[in-house]
Specification:
The complex is a heterotrimer of chains A (435), B (447) and C (389). Chain A is an alpha/beta fold and 435 residues long. Chain A has a domain at 263-413: 2-Layer Sandwich (Nucleotidyltransferase, domain 5). In chain A, 57% of the residues lie in helices and 13% in strands. The longest helix of chain A has 35 residues, at 66-100. Chain B has one domain (10-421). Chain B is built from 17 helices and eight strands. In chain B, the strands form two sheets. Chain B has a four-stranded parallel sheet with strand order 2-1-3-4, sandwiched between helices. In chain B, strand 3, helix 7 (126-138) and strand 4 form a beta-alpha-beta unit. With 389 residues, chain C is an alpha/beta fold. Chain C contains 14 helices and eight strands. The longest helix of chain C has 27 residues, at 164-190. Chains in contact: A-B, A-C, B-C.
Chain lengths: 435, 447, 389
């Protein structure tokens, strides 16, 4: 089948969206950005293709009950992810062993380091299964994050037992993970799926259902997905191995993507990790005006990251705490660097943590509102995208400020808004060839 | 970016030679015994200075030269170490830094201390402080020529009289005293006659931007065109010759249907985007910035920066030998940055219309409040009045820390793609109904 | 008798009211009244008053005004006062103001005068330039004619003639006001513990909104009350604050400097009501007198050219001597061209005269005072500990 792919190389994450020739979205993929843009691009695309496969499975299983299908596909995905994870873990182990033989490490620690590595990865492999069990909680789905956290968990005791400093293992890890991350993903998707299916077959809870679904799934696996057109966008797009015709500015992709999600939208605000964009689009999704803040962290997601660090809490905890505020403390610092100092000042003056946090959320939104104001203000409907859009406290302040300054405007927030740019890029790819 | 020598046209080489000659004169005052006057580009009374035999030194030009030679970054940091704020004009800091490091001109020789500072206070507040700072260093005579701001969009009698009176009562007598030369108004008239002639040719050249394809780039390329007239040459025969030569050169390009020449030696004949620019260029990354335009097939057809040292097209001002002091006053009062905001908006709107531009690009300079304060309003007003899109990018004059190529390229690309998309959209709606396919505007044929 | 606290409370109420209720009430209480808004510094308020109109000083939005629309007009590297002023305008808080005067201060405010014309085409907007040439027959003549233009415009706006007697009367009123201002400043310089900096500040700010006669009386009342009040003497370091003549610091900042151990014995916060030293002559041609006063009696600020190099910074040094200050605090708004460009030259002068100084920047909505307290405190301590007796 003909498909069109859009790839958005952001500074923090790389996203891919795959759609069919009618513009229906079949799959989405996301991975952490890394120094090798080509690899980031390939991994994101692969993830989107995996996601597409599951969509195809679902489409082929329409005869079965939704509950059953849901449970089986969820289990299949977990197995698939496990297979993926183990493959990459093997790669990481081989890389670590290879690096451990290099002069830098072998000279200092000799064979005991390699032994420690083997021992460690043995434990990591054994542990992997439960990471992908139903109900298992993870802070992130990216290999780098999962492997890293498990490595930290098991590394210290293994190092002690082997009589080598933990730092050595850590250095080895740091060196090796970069290599592994920047290697293009290795092929055989079909093989991995089949392997996952086999794994699943071995689990008796699904035996009956799986037997019925086996054939439709395998048929869906055989559908050939033709990557008919690809358009790249985002911060790292200049490094994409695409010809110029296949690259679009992120502003245009973002505007079009928002339009596809919400055809009535006229103003789009994206608060990314490191930049903030305000875009005005017309009825066809074409950009009429835009303003960017790409130099100053205040008004970007980074601001909240900094605050979270200052308060020693997780980024995802900021919003929930702030929503408990009984009043909004006024924070005047427009500069991220000083927000921390102002935060400490207020705490010292006796203000409650949640009230200060509410104030900080208001501050970041105020900065974003300035940008929007500069791009032409807010016209109905208003779409809010980016990581910060998931933060309930930020959204609350946004709603208040929009109401105060622009009246009753429909505000659109989509859980998949992080894919807006990639969605627009995919649509550009499609329009190029279908029209 | 290759480091090879930029390809230059004959007129570019001539103006380079003229500017180099002026630096040679400036750096050999011990030998030639000439006196030196420092002044500013807006309100540059070169013809008057020539009457007294002064050599004209322009600190702004020195800063630009240092910027293009990548020396300004160090100079600015030097000035900041001496206590100058991060927030202020980088021309000033580049100058202070340059002074601190031997005051070396582009020819490698030290510039002399000026004999007089002609503080032509036109269009920019910072000028006042700049020469106060230089005066503190050099302890030399400083002459204030206050050119009032044309806040209501016109030159009033009071403003003109005030400037003329300052010239008569303060400036000319002091220049006589310092130079030891008596003022001869007929000599001034002669120079002004030359100025007017050169101005005619310059305006002709700039107006060729209306053609399709445009034979000139009215921003980057035009920086070289305005060199002689904004610096030590307006009023000289040299400038008259230069502009005649330039005019012929451009006429030839018109006859050949050629676009402007780029530093890489290519012709921008396929001009995909015609743009009007507002704001000074960036000097530290001049060629890199220029390349971002011609790589996209964009040519600047008109700019406001090329009017900073004198505005000759908008209201057809020419230096007038019959009213020498009055026209010097009017020249100063009419410089671009001395115009009020509504006039600036009108100038830009007119350019977009008369030069059939696709849109406006504003290069907002961090350290220049005179240009920058209000550019966001200019942008919106121009968009509203012309219906054409505007792009807003941010950089600086000569502080390399404030030029982010990636950010600028990002915004410019988005802008050009926006124009493209608008064109496509316009093209679609221009098609007859039957060929639009599944368009919602497909109307049902009436019986 | 009224106590200082009551007077200060009234002033604070006026200061905090961004709807300018006091001025609105003045206008509403009699038909045909007009209000002319103006920005700092060198505005001839006498002329406004002589037309029967109320001069209303607009000094930005302060730290309680959230700027949302105003940010659409200015990039981040421009100071806050123009954006908060625009915010006041576009949110309707100045809808009762019949005219706006923008004096020459810097290029940002200069350009704002043009933006105002575009934003509010039906409001009389005038850019009022001041000469940088101080010869009576040159700059003086220019200024005189500018005043005449303004007078004509005001006559049209107010719908009445402004006679020379009207002008002389207004000059007298402002002379008196200026005299009281100087008395308050002298009083404070003499016994700073009796007139805290924030109180004097609020008293001066009130003069931006209240009619001049009322303000003069308020100052009289304050002096009487402050004299009576039993405030313990404190031996803090005596400082002059300079650089804050346009965008104002938050009240907390002024407070913080005092808390940190300084007595503010002079400042340039409200130069608007004290940019003329001494009185303007009240006999003869009032316009000529105003022009002469500007040329010969106006204070040195960063927006004015100093003709003679040796006199640059003299005003500041003289001020330090007259007020027996021990040091200078340069407090300038971020991005303020006049104050920041001038600073190195003024600092050199102070160094030549062995006057210690520190410098920092603020914004009208600066939120954190800890660094201010630290810097001012350290400064105060260092003077006390290490300066020669």
């Amino acid at each position: 089948m003909r498909t069109f792919i859009g790839i958005d190389l952001g500074s923090t994450t790389t996203k891919a969206v795959l759609m069919d020739e009618n513009g229906a979205v079949l799959g989405r993929g996301i991975t952490n950005s890394r120094s090798d843009y080509d690899t980031a691009c390939a991994v994101a695309k692969m993830e989107a293709l995996v996601n597409t496969r599951f969509t195809l499975f679902r489409q082929n299983l329409t005869d079965e009950g939704e509950d059953k299908v849901g449970a089986v596909l969820a289990a299949l995905e977990r197995k698939f992810r496990l297979v993926q994870f183990l493959d990459q873990l093997n790669d990481l182990e081989e890389t670590c062993l290879r690096n451990a033989s290099g002069t830098r490490f072998a000279g200092a620690y000799g064979e005991s380091l390699r032994d420690a590595v083997r021992q460690l990865f043995f434990q990591l492999r054994a542990d992997a299964g439960k990471l992908f069990e139903s109900g298992a909680e993870r802070k992130s789905d990216f290999f780098r994050d999962i492997a890293g956290s498990r490595f930290m968990h098991f590394g210290d005791p293994v190092a002690k037992a082997a009589g080598i400093p933990f730092d050595a293992l850590l250095s080895l890890y740091d060196k090796s993970i970069i290599e592994v991350e920047n290697r293009p993903p290795s092929g055989d998707m079909k093989g991995k799926f089949l392997s996952a299916l086999d794994h699943l077959a071995g689990q008796h809870q699904f035996n009956g259902d799986l037997h019925q679904m086996d054939e439709p799934i395998r048929k869906a696996l055989d559908i050939s997905i033709e990557e008919t057109g690809i358009v790249g966008t985002g911060y790292g797009r200049v490094r994409l191995p695409f010809a110029k015709e296949f690259i679009r500015s992120e502003i245009l992709c973002h505007g079009l993507g928002a339009h596809l999600m919400y055809p009535k939208t006229r103003t789009v605000l994206d608060i990314g990790g490191q930049d903030t964009k305000s875009i005005q689009v017309d009825g066809a999704g074409i950009v009429e005006n835009f303003q960017m803040n790409d130099r100053c962290a205040a008004g970007c997601g980074r601001y909240l990251g900094y605050i979270a660090d200052e308060m020693n809490i997780g980024l995802h905890e900021l919003g929930p705490i702030a929503t408990q505020a009984s009043k909004v403390v006024r924070i005047n610092s427009t500069c991220t660097v000083f927000a921390g100092a102002e935060l400490r000042d207020r705490l010292a003056l006796g203000e409650k943590r949640e009230n200060i946090l509410a104030g900080l959320h208001r501050a970041i939104i105020l900065r974003a509102m300035s940008l929007v104001s500069r791009s032409g203000g807010i016209k109905d409907e208003f779409t809010f995208t980016g990581g910060v859009a998931k933060n309930e406290a930020a959204v609350r302040e946004l709603r208040k400020l929009v109401k105060e300054n622009y009246g009753d405007i429909t505000i659109n927030i989509n859980p998949n808004s992080i894919f807006t740019g990639a969605l627009g890029a995919a649509e550009f790819a499609r329009r190029r060839l279908v029209n | 970016m290759s480091a090879k020598e930029a390809v230059k046209e004959p007129s570019m080489l001539k103006q380079k030679e003229m500017i180099a000659r002026n630096y040679d004169l400036l750096t050999s005052t011990k030998e030639n015994g000439r006196k030196v006057c420092s002044t500013y580009v807006p309100g540059n009374l070169n013809e008057l200075l020539m009457c007294f035999g002064f050599l004209n030194n322009l600190p702004e030009i020195n800063a630009i030269q240092n910027g293009m030679r990548k020396l300004s970054g160090d100079y600015i940091m030097e000035a900041e170490k001496l206590g100058h704020s991060e927030d202020v004009c980088t021309y000033v800091k580049a100058d202070i830094g340059m002074m601190g490091k031997g005051n070396i001109a582009p020819n490698g020789k030290p510039l002399p201390a000026p004999d007089v500072l002609l503080l032509s206070y036109t269009g920019c507040f910072t000028f006042m402080k700049w020469f106060e700072l230089l005066r503190e260093q050099y302890k030399c005579p400083t002459l204030m020529l206050h050119v009032p701001y044309t806040a209501n969009g016109c030159i009033t009698d009071n403003m003109r009289d005030y400037v003329v009176r300052q010239l008569k009562e303060e400036i000319i007598p002091k220049l006589e005293e310092i130079s030891g030369t008596r003022f001869d108004i007929d000599r001034l008239r002669e120079y002004l006659r030359n100025s007017a002639e050169a101005e005619d040719d310059l305006v002709w050249v700039l107006e060729q931007g209306k053609r399709k394809p445009s034979p000139i780039d009215a921003y980057f390329g035009a920086v070289y065109y305005i060199g002689p007239i904004f610096t030590a040459f307006r009023g000289t025969q040299d400038a008259v010759d230069y502009y005649r030569m330039l005019r012929a050169e451009i006429a030839e390009r018109v006859a050949q249907g050629q676009g402007p020449l780029t530093p890489e030696g290519t012709d921008v004949t396929h001009q995909k985007y015609r743009v009007v620019t507002e704001g000074p260029p960036n000097w530290t990354h001049f060629r890199e910035f220029w390349k971002m335009f011609y790589d996209e097939g964009a040519v600047v057809v008109a700019s406001t920066y090329t009017k900073v040292g004198g505005l000759y097209d908008y209201d057809n001002f020419r230096h007038d030998p019959d009213r020498p002091l009055e026209s010097l006053a009017e020249y100063c009062l009419g410089c671009y940055t001395n115009r009020n905001m509504p006039t600036r908006i009108d100038i830009i709107e007119r350019y977009i219309r008369e030069y059939d531009a696709d849109g406006l690009l504003i290069n907002s300079i961090k350290s220049c409040n005179s240009f920058s304060a209000g550019q966001l309003v200019i942008m919106r007003e121009v968009e509203t009045r012309t219906g054409k899109p505007a792009a807003f990018i941010e950089s600086d004059l000569v502080d390399p820390r404030y030029f982010s190529a990636a950010n600028i390229k990002n915004r410019m690309e988005s802008y050009f793609q926006m124009i493209d998309q608008k064109r496509k959209g316009a093209a679609v709606s221009a098609l007859p109904v039957t060929s639009r396919g599944a368009s919602a505007r497909h109307s049902v044929a009436t019986a | 008798m009224v106590v200082t606290a009551e007077i200060v409370a009234r002033c604070q109420e006026v200061f905090e009211d961004l709807n300018f209720t006091a001025a609105r009430q003045w206008k509403a209480s009699k038909a045909g009244r007009k209000v002319i808004g103006f920005m700092p510094v060198y505005i001839p308020r006498e002329l406004i008053h002589a037309a029967g109109m109320l001069p209303l000083g607009i000094l930005g939005g302060g730290d309680s005004l959230e700027v949302i629309h105003g940010d659409a007009y200015y990039q981040s590297y421009i100071c806050r006062i123009p954006r908060s002023t625009v915010e006041l305008g576009v949110t309707g808080r100045l809808d009762f103001v019949d005219g706006m005067l923008f004096p020459f201060v810097c290029d940002v405010i200069r350009n704002l005068s043009g933006l105002w014309k575009i934003l509010f085409p039906n409001v009389y907007t005038h850019f009022f330039d001041t000469p940088q040439n101080y010869r009576a027959d040159v700059g003086g003549e220019y200024y005189r004619r500018e005043l005449l233009e303004l007078k004509k415009d005001f006559e049209e706006l107010a719908g009445r003639e402004i006679t020379d007697d009207d002008l002389r009367s207004s000059i007298r009123a402002y002379n008196e006001n200026r005299q009281l201002v100087e008395e308050v400043y002298s009083f404070r310089a003499h016994q700073p513990w009796k007139a805290p900096a924030t109180e004097v500040y609020l008293l001066m700010r009130a003069g931006m909104v209240l009619p001049v006669e009322e303000h003069t009386q308020l100052m009289r009342d304050y002096l009487a009350a402050a004299e009576q009040e039993n405030r313990p003497m404190r031996d803090k370091t005596r400082v002059v604050i300079t650089g804050s003549f346009c965008e104002q610091p938050p009240l907390d900042l002024i407070k913080s400097i005092e808390i940190a151990g300084c007595h503010v014995v002079d400042d340039d916060y409200m130069l608007v009501n004290r940019w003329l030293k001494g009185s303007v002559a009240t006999d003869g041609d009032p316009i000529a007198n105003l022009a002469k006063a500007f040329l010969e009696q106006s204070v040195e600020t960063s927006c004015k050219y100093v003709e003679v190099e040796q006199r640059k910074g003299k005003f500041l040094v003289d001020c330090v001597r007259e007020r027996r200050a021990e040091g200078v605090i340069f407090a300038a708004p971020s991005f303020c061209d006049p104050a920041l460009l001038d600073r190195p030259m003024l600092q050199h002068r102070l160094a030549e005269n062995n006057i210690p100084y520190i410098a920092f920047k603020y914004a009208e909505n600066s939120g954190q005072m800890q660094p201010i307290r630290e810097q001012a405190g350290t400064f105060a301590d260092s003077i006390k500990l290490w300066s020669e007796p």
